[in-house]
Amino acid sequence: MDKVNYSVVSEFVFLGLSNTWGIQLLLFLFSSVFYMASLMGNLLILFSVTSDPNLHSPMYFLLANLSFLDLGICSITAPKMIYDLFRKHKSISFWGCITQIFFIHTVGGTEMVLLIAMAFDRYVAICKPLHYLTVMNPRTCVLILAVAWVLGLIHSVAQLAFIVDLPFCGPNILDSFYCDLPQLIKLACTETNKLEFMVTANSGLISVGSFFILVISYVFILVTVQKHSSGGISKAISTLSAHVTVVVLFFGPLIFFYTWPFPSSHLDKFLAIFDAVLTPFLNPVIYTFRNKEMKAAMRKLYYQLVSYRKVP
After folding, report:
1. Helix axis angle, 292-310 relative to 279-289, nearest 10°?
2. What interhelical angle do 94-127 and 205-228 show, nearest 10?
């Protein structure tokens, strides 16, 4: 059969999160509050790092870019999820679905590389402080950012290249509130075992591999610090605790989505909401809660804005 005639699905319909009005209202309030908080928190970090010369360092450059990526992560799926909560017909066009998947994996892949780069930054700062400014110079930081985006794009396009030409002839129901590869592949009117394995090998192994690289790097940093300075171990733990927390929050849901062999729609949806609106909110909180320089920069920015508004 001709592939053009075979692919007849023009839109996909989401089952959403719940059909109960009370739960929908609760989800609407929860998602709206944390989505707005995610936007404001990450924008605050971006403006603080940009406006304060004291934060023009490699660590804060990477942190600002992490906040930019978190702005993207929380904006890819959360607005439509909130908009669809009270709609009976929750749908997305075929190309809208493909576009959503493209940005999810581009931004997600870029953030994976950026988190590894932040771990490397902490390794150089803690273990080789005398060489820090030489190694983490502005050119290196820009190169790291460029490599992160290129790898994120390659990761996303490599998967979509196999998905775009799949035949979809119905059904078109997705038991979710957003589009992603594991659910979409199962709707194709063809044998998908190889494609499902490809998704696991690509997204799943990359997520697991990146997570273990980060864990091993943090352990290596702590061991190195302990060997050279027994008194510096507590400071190193304090510095790395924020990074470890962010890594666990980011990679935990991803590893479950792409490697767990027993899918559960309820747990998948809960983790998806957590990953879409809560993690991008927690990242700025975690990185700024114990950071004196960042808190001072935010206060300075706040006072500048207040004084500017008072000027007639």
Report:
1. 100
2. 10
Cis peptide, bond prior to residue 129, ω within 30 of zero: no
Dihedral, 39, 44, 47, 50 alpha carbons, nearest 10: -110
Q: Cβ of 113: how many Cβ atoms within 10 Å?
A: 20
Q: Are 168 and 177 in contact (CB under 8 A)?
A: no
Helix (H) or strand (E) holding 290: none
Stated pTM of the model: 0.87
**Distance, CA of 251 to CA of 233 (rounded, Å):** 25
23-67 confidence digits (pLDDT tens): 889 989 999 999 999 999 899 899 888 988 888 889 899 999 999
For residue 195, give Cα distances in angstroms to 48, 117, 151, 183, 186: 44, 30, 21, 12, 10
Rounded to whole angstroms, how far apart are CA atoms 100 and 117? 26
- Beta-sheet strand order (sheet of 173-174): 91-93, 11-14, 173-174
Q: Structure tokens of 73?
A: 């992560």
Torsion of CA 134, 135, 140, 141, to 10 degrees: -100
Give me the phi and psi of 201, to 5 degrees please.
-65, -35
pLDDT above 60 for 6:
no
What is the average pLDDT across 183-208?
Answer: 82
Contact 200, 214 (CB under 8 A): no
Mutual orientation of helices 58-76 and 94-127 as an angle, nearest 10°?
A: 160
With H, G, I as helix, E, B as strand and everything else as coil, classify residue 91: strand
Distance of alpha carbon 105 from alpha carbon 152, whole angstroms: 7
Instruction: Specify the DSSP class assigned to residue 204.
Output: I
H-helix or E-strand spanning residue 14: strand 11-14
- CA 101, chain centre distance (Å): 13
CA atoms within 13 A on the CB side of 1: 11
Q: What angle do CA 10, 191, 96 make, to 5 degrees?
A: 25
Q: Is 77 helix (H, G, I), strand (E, B) or coil?
A: coil
